[in-house]
Amino acid sequence: MSTTTPPAAKTRQPRGRAPDLRLDPPAGQARRPKLSWVALGLAVVLAGGLFGAVTLARVADRAPVLALAMPIERGETLTDDHLRVVDVAADEQLPLVTADDRLQLVGLTATGPLPAGSLVTREQFSDGPQVADGFSVVGLALQPGEYPIAALTPGDRVEVVRTPDPTGVRSDGGSGAAVLTDDAEVYAVGPLSETSAGLMVSLTVPQDTGPAIASAAAEGRVRLVLVPAS
Protein backbone atom coordinates (compact mmCIF):
# COMPACT_ATOMS: atom_id res chain seq x y z
CA MET A 1 0.00 0.00 0.00
CA SER A 2 1.55 3.30 -1.03
CA THR A 3 1.71 6.36 1.24
CA THR A 4 1.04 9.79 -0.23
CA THR A 5 3.00 12.73 1.30
CA PRO A 6 0.99 15.90 1.43
CA PRO A 7 2.62 18.95 -0.24
CA ALA A 8 4.54 21.34 2.01
CA ALA A 9 2.54 24.31 3.13
CA LYS A 10 3.59 27.59 1.51
CA THR A 11 4.79 30.33 3.77
CA ARG A 12 2.53 33.34 3.43
CA GLN A 13 3.72 36.93 3.98
CA PRO A 14 1.51 39.12 6.07
CA ARG A 15 -0.63 41.37 3.95
CA GLY A 16 0.17 45.05 3.90
CA ARG A 17 3.91 44.75 4.73
CA ALA A 18 6.70 44.81 2.18
CA PRO A 19 9.52 42.36 2.64
CA ASP A 20 12.54 43.64 4.56
CA LEU A 21 15.41 44.68 2.31
CA ARG A 22 18.93 45.43 3.52
CA LEU A 23 21.74 46.71 1.35
CA ASP A 24 25.14 45.99 2.77
CA PRO A 25 27.85 48.55 1.91
CA PRO A 26 30.69 47.37 -0.25
CA ALA A 27 33.60 45.88 1.52
CA GLY A 28 36.10 48.47 2.86
CA GLN A 29 33.51 51.26 3.10
CA ALA A 30 31.56 50.22 6.16
CA ARG A 31 33.19 52.71 8.55
CA ARG A 32 35.17 55.10 6.33
CA PRO A 33 35.40 58.54 8.08
CA LYS A 34 34.19 61.66 6.29
CA LEU A 35 37.55 63.22 5.52
CA SER A 36 36.08 66.54 4.31
CA TRP A 37 34.58 67.31 7.73
CA VAL A 38 37.81 66.35 9.50
CA ALA A 39 39.81 68.69 7.26
CA LEU A 40 37.36 71.52 7.87
CA GLY A 41 37.65 71.08 11.63
CA LEU A 42 41.44 71.18 11.47
CA ALA A 43 41.31 74.35 9.37
CA VAL A 44 39.05 76.06 11.92
CA VAL A 45 41.39 75.13 14.78
CA LEU A 46 44.45 76.39 12.90
CA ALA A 47 42.71 79.64 11.96
CA GLY A 48 41.71 80.26 15.55
CA GLY A 49 45.26 79.72 16.75
CA LEU A 50 46.65 82.06 14.10
CA PHE A 51 44.13 84.80 15.01
CA GLY A 52 45.03 84.50 18.67
CA ALA A 53 48.74 84.77 17.92
CA VAL A 54 48.25 87.87 15.75
CA THR A 55 46.05 89.49 18.41
CA LEU A 56 48.61 88.87 21.13
CA ALA A 57 51.36 90.27 18.92
CA ARG A 58 49.38 93.43 18.26
CA VAL A 59 48.62 93.92 21.94
CA ALA A 60 52.27 93.44 22.80
CA ASP A 61 53.28 96.15 20.27
CA ARG A 62 50.94 98.79 21.74
CA ALA A 63 52.28 101.57 23.94
CA PRO A 64 50.72 104.23 26.22
CA VAL A 65 51.07 107.68 24.63
CA LEU A 66 49.51 111.11 25.12
CA ALA A 67 46.49 112.49 23.26
CA LEU A 68 44.38 115.60 23.65
CA ALA A 69 41.31 115.23 25.86
CA MET A 70 39.96 118.57 24.59
CA PRO A 71 40.70 120.91 21.68
CA ILE A 72 43.42 123.52 22.01
CA GLU A 73 43.95 126.73 20.05
CA ARG A 74 47.16 128.18 18.74
CA GLY A 75 48.91 130.22 21.41
CA GLU A 76 47.06 128.46 24.24
CA THR A 77 49.06 127.03 27.13
CA LEU A 78 48.89 123.27 27.51
CA THR A 79 47.65 122.10 30.92
CA ASP A 80 47.44 118.66 32.47
CA ASP A 81 43.66 118.68 31.90
CA HIS A 82 44.28 118.84 28.14
CA LEU A 83 46.00 115.43 28.16
CA ARG A 84 44.88 111.83 28.42
CA VAL A 85 46.63 108.48 27.93
CA VAL A 86 45.74 106.14 25.06
CA ASP A 87 47.25 102.84 23.89
CA VAL A 88 48.29 102.81 20.24
CA ALA A 89 50.36 100.56 18.04
CA ALA A 90 54.04 101.42 18.23
CA ASP A 91 55.25 103.46 15.26
CA GLU A 92 58.91 104.42 15.14
CA GLN A 93 58.30 106.96 12.35
CA LEU A 94 55.82 109.03 14.38
CA PRO A 95 57.50 110.79 17.35
CA LEU A 96 54.65 110.39 19.83
CA VAL A 97 55.05 111.51 23.43
CA THR A 98 54.85 108.68 25.96
CA ALA A 99 52.77 108.89 29.11
CA ASP A 100 55.97 109.05 31.20
CA ASP A 101 56.90 112.38 29.55
CA ARG A 102 53.62 114.09 30.44
CA LEU A 103 55.19 116.73 32.69
CA GLN A 104 57.59 117.78 29.92
CA LEU A 105 54.66 119.12 27.86
CA VAL A 106 52.60 120.88 30.52
CA GLY A 107 53.17 124.64 30.31
CA LEU A 108 54.18 124.67 26.63
CA THR A 109 52.40 126.76 23.98
CA ALA A 110 50.44 125.23 21.08
CA THR A 111 51.87 126.24 17.71
CA GLY A 112 48.56 125.60 15.97
CA PRO A 113 44.96 124.58 16.62
CA LEU A 114 44.49 120.89 17.44
CA PRO A 115 41.19 118.97 17.81
CA ALA A 116 40.35 116.66 20.69
CA GLY A 117 41.69 113.16 20.20
CA SER A 118 44.86 114.28 18.39
CA LEU A 119 47.95 112.23 19.24
CA VAL A 120 50.55 114.55 20.74
CA THR A 121 54.02 115.19 19.32
CA ARG A 122 56.67 117.51 20.71
CA GLU A 123 56.75 119.52 17.47
CA GLN A 124 53.16 120.72 18.07
CA PHE A 125 54.26 122.84 21.06
CA SER A 126 56.93 125.40 21.82
CA ASP A 127 58.44 127.12 24.82
CA GLY A 128 56.79 130.43 23.88
CA PRO A 129 54.87 132.27 21.17
CA GLN A 130 56.13 131.64 17.66
CA VAL A 131 56.21 135.01 15.90
CA ALA A 132 57.84 135.71 12.56
CA ASP A 133 60.53 138.34 12.28
CA GLY A 134 59.05 141.81 11.89
CA PHE A 135 55.81 140.93 13.70
CA SER A 136 54.62 141.18 17.29
CA VAL A 137 51.64 139.95 19.31
CA VAL A 138 49.20 142.52 20.71
CA GLY A 139 46.46 141.64 23.19
CA LEU A 140 43.10 143.42 22.94
CA ALA A 141 40.31 143.39 25.54
CA LEU A 142 37.22 143.86 23.37
CA GLN A 143 33.57 144.31 24.21
CA PRO A 144 30.62 143.20 22.06
CA GLY A 145 30.44 145.46 19.02
CA GLU A 146 34.21 145.89 18.86
CA TYR A 147 34.74 142.58 17.06
CA PRO A 148 32.78 140.74 14.33
CA ILE A 149 29.70 138.83 15.44
CA ALA A 150 31.07 135.84 13.55
CA ALA A 151 33.20 133.63 15.79
CA LEU A 152 36.87 134.51 15.55
CA THR A 153 39.31 131.64 15.36
CA PRO A 154 43.12 131.57 15.26
CA GLY A 155 44.35 132.15 11.73
CA ASP A 156 41.56 134.58 10.74
CA ARG A 157 42.73 137.70 8.92
CA VAL A 158 41.44 141.02 10.27
CA GLU A 159 41.88 144.75 9.82
CA VAL A 160 42.48 146.85 12.92
CA VAL A 161 40.55 150.12 12.73
CA ARG A 162 40.92 153.09 15.08
CA THR A 163 37.58 154.81 15.55
CA PRO A 164 37.24 158.63 15.76
CA ASP A 165 37.79 160.34 19.08
CA PRO A 166 34.30 160.86 20.56
CA THR A 167 35.42 164.23 21.96
CA GLY A 168 36.56 165.42 18.55
CA VAL A 169 40.03 166.14 19.89
CA ARG A 170 43.02 164.08 18.80
CA SER A 171 46.52 164.42 20.14
CA ASP A 172 47.99 163.64 16.73
CA GLY A 173 45.78 166.11 14.87
CA GLY A 174 43.85 163.40 13.00
CA SER A 175 40.14 163.80 12.46
CA GLY A 176 38.54 160.46 11.64
CA ALA A 177 38.76 156.69 11.61
CA ALA A 178 41.92 155.09 10.32
CA VAL A 179 43.06 151.60 9.41
CA LEU A 180 46.02 150.89 11.64
CA THR A 181 46.85 147.66 9.81
CA ASP A 182 45.20 145.44 7.23
CA ASP A 183 47.69 142.65 7.84
CA ALA A 184 46.70 141.32 11.25
CA GLU A 185 46.08 137.66 12.08
CA VAL A 186 44.17 136.27 15.04
CA TYR A 187 46.70 134.47 17.23
CA ALA A 188 44.43 133.37 20.10
CA VAL A 189 40.90 134.02 21.38
CA GLY A 190 39.43 133.58 24.84
CA PRO A 191 36.72 134.93 27.12
CA LEU A 192 37.49 138.25 28.75
CA SER A 193 36.16 136.99 32.08
CA GLU A 194 33.60 134.56 33.47
CA THR A 195 31.01 137.33 33.87
CA SER A 196 31.72 139.38 30.73
CA ALA A 197 30.50 138.83 27.18
CA GLY A 198 33.72 140.36 25.86
CA LEU A 199 36.71 138.63 24.30
CA MET A 200 40.43 138.69 24.86
CA VAL A 201 41.89 138.63 21.35
CA SER A 202 45.61 138.35 20.64
CA LEU A 203 46.70 139.54 17.21
CA THR A 204 49.89 139.06 15.26
CA VAL A 205 50.56 142.46 13.66
CA PRO A 206 53.43 144.17 11.85
CA GLN A 207 55.87 145.30 14.52
CA ASP A 208 55.75 148.97 13.54
CA THR A 209 51.97 149.11 14.07
CA GLY A 210 51.99 147.50 17.51
CA PRO A 211 52.35 150.71 19.59
CA ALA A 212 49.55 152.53 17.74
CA ILE A 213 47.21 149.54 18.13
CA ALA A 214 47.99 149.21 21.84
CA SER A 215 47.37 152.94 22.36
CA ALA A 216 44.04 152.89 20.54
CA ALA A 217 43.03 149.78 22.52
CA ALA A 218 43.79 151.55 25.80
CA GLU A 219 41.40 154.34 24.75
CA GLY A 220 38.68 151.83 23.80
CA ARG A 221 38.84 152.91 20.15
CA VAL A 222 39.73 149.68 18.38
CA ARG A 223 37.46 147.73 16.05
CA LEU A 224 38.27 144.52 14.23
CA VAL A 225 37.05 143.93 10.69
CA LEU A 226 37.06 140.33 9.46
CA VAL A 227 38.78 140.01 6.08
CA PRO A 228 37.35 137.33 3.75
CA ALA A 229 39.73 134.48 3.03
CA SER A 230 41.39 134.87 -0.35
Q: In words, what does this structure look like?
A:
With 230 residues, the protein is an alpha+beta fold. Among the domains are: 62-126, Alpha-Beta Complex (Type Iii Antifreeze Protein Isoform Hplc 12), CATH 3.90.1210; 135-226, no CATH class. The chain is built from three helices and nine strands; from the N terminus they run H-E-E-H-E-E-E-E-E-E-H-E. It has helices at 35-60, 102-105, 210-218; strands spanning 62-68, 83-89, 109-110, 125-126, 135-142, 157-162, 178-191, 199-206, 222-226. A five-stranded antiparallel β-sheet has the order 5-8-7-6-9. Strands 1-2 form a two-stranded antiparallel ribbon. A two-stranded antiparallel sheet has the order 3-4.
Give keywords:
two-stranded antiparallel sheet, 5-stranded antiparallel sheet, 230 residues, 3 helices, Type Iii Antifreeze Protein Isoform Hplc 12, single chain, alpha+beta
